[in-house]
Amino acid sequence: MSAAVAAARAGCRTLMIERYGFMGGMGTAAGVTNFCGLHANVFGSHQRVVAGVGGELVDRIGALGGLATPHILFGGKIAAQAYDTAAYKLAADTLVVDSGAQILFHAYAVGVQMDDEARIRALFVETKSGRHAVLGRIFIDASGDGDLAAAAGAPFEKGDGDGGMLYPSTMFRVNGVDAARAGDAWNHFGAWMEKAEAEGHRFARKTPIIRPQKNPAEWRANVTQLSNADGSAIDGTDAWQLSAGELQGRRQIADFYQFLRAYAPGFEQSYLLEIAPQVGIRETRRVVGEYQLTEDDVLGCVDFADTIGVNGWPIEAHVAGNVVFKFADVPNVRGYNQLPLRMILPQRVDNLLVAGRCASMTHMGQSAARVTGACFVMGEAAGTAAAQALRHGQRVRDVDVALLQATLQANGAFLGLPGDEGQPIG
Ligand SMILES: Cc1cc2nc3c(=O)[nH]c(=O)nc-3n(C[C@H](O)[C@H](O)[C@H](O)COP(=O)(O)OP(=O)(O)OC[C@H]3O[C@@H](n4cnc5c(N)ncnc54)[C@H](O)[C@@H]3O)c2cc1C
């Protein structure tokens, strides 16, 4: 979405291809309903550090009444911000249409034709009106799974070296919560789950994340964990595992909802508002680019000469049965790392950029920079770099970094360069 907007605004003839009938990816289709990574803890001050196209989308969601005020987590370490999916879908439509990009919904990208091993000629899409070949001079893979990059032969990795990926979750929301009685329930679910376990309940994972949306009667629940019979994470690029994961996720939700009504004050009269349309996939293919963002980069709040924006979210590893968070030493440090252009430049293929959770990161680096804020940043940079490469007749990996950074800044992006200031959230 942000790649398409950036490229179209820069004057490129741009086609945004999406398998569903709406945009937002995991943010809408998997019911995430909460922005992470828009903010950073900058020496104790919570600031919005994602501007540009991502910032515009957030503002448009706000104008539609679909945005909660940011909430502070982990005893003051970081902020996040809940939103409504309906407002997100509307805001995304207008943002992309206004940019001049064309949209092809209900089109599943299934393969490529190459000119040679370094150049994609066409992307094949399956649609209700048949199979089509989309010709392009530059392609941007923001499929989350690196579908296009993999088909084009770009190298990629999966998981932690032994194949273990971050575990997926199916998200759900309940409505009809008595907010006054629920109070700060998010601080107590862990203890209530321990009590319930002692009384025979079984949970797929510890560290539940259950929080109110803008409407205080509506709460989202990020509590499930989807695994295969051998305990490994469901692989979001395997149709059989995805199918089993859908069933497993909904079964876990049915069980968890029984627990909520029985153990959580204020949830007795609640009802299941929505189970996300699809399982939430955190990690599959990570395309190997010219640089892989690492855990040390995130925890060390590292700078890169080719910065395209920043990530303020910590390491968030969804491991078997639990979620492990690791923070930089906030509030004693700047609280964000820069994101290098090289992480969106895949090896081997010259007319391809890759943005989002399938960009070039190590397994642990991805556990942080896969969140929405960083995905917006990568997308805008990819669209802008594509336009620059076309204008100058260059390969995407040869674009002039200083010119790209100047363009991004002129368009309102936050690059984390000296003099750049985030927007304090009060
Ligand atoms: C359960 C869960 C909870 C999360 N919680 C949070 C949170 O609280 N806050 C936060 O900021 N982040 C959260 N995340 C992470 C974040 O939502 C994702 O990492 C992020 O959305 C990834 O964005 P993306 O654009 O790279 O990929 P995706 O969101 O996966 O988007 C990819 C898009 O490409 C489309 N697509 C994929 N393949 C094809 C194809 N072959 N042809 C056509 N279209 C295709 C998809 O339909 C989708 O629209 C969570 C993730 C999960 C799974």
Description:
The protein is α+β, with helices and mostly antiparallel strands and 426 residues long. It folds into two domains: 2-162 and 284-410, FAD/NAD(P)-binding domain (3-Layer(bba) Sandwich), CATH 3.50.50.60; 172-275. The chain contains twelve helices and 23 strands. The chain has helices at 2-9, 26-29, 52-63, 85-99, 147-151, 179-182, 189-198, 239-263, 295-299, 363-369, 372-392, 401-410, and strands at 15-17, 34-35, 39-42, 45-48, 71-73, 78-82, 102-104, 107-116, 119-127, 130-135, 139-141, 156-158, 172-175, 209-212, 219-222, 271-275, 285-287, 307-311, 315-319, 322-326, 337-340, 352-354, 423-424. Strands 14-15-13-16 form a four-stranded antiparallel sheet, covered by helices on one side. It has a three-stranded antiparallel sheet with strand order 2-6-5, with no helix packed on it. Strands 3-4-23 form a three-stranded antiparallel sheet, with no helix packed on it. The protein is globular and about 65 Å long.
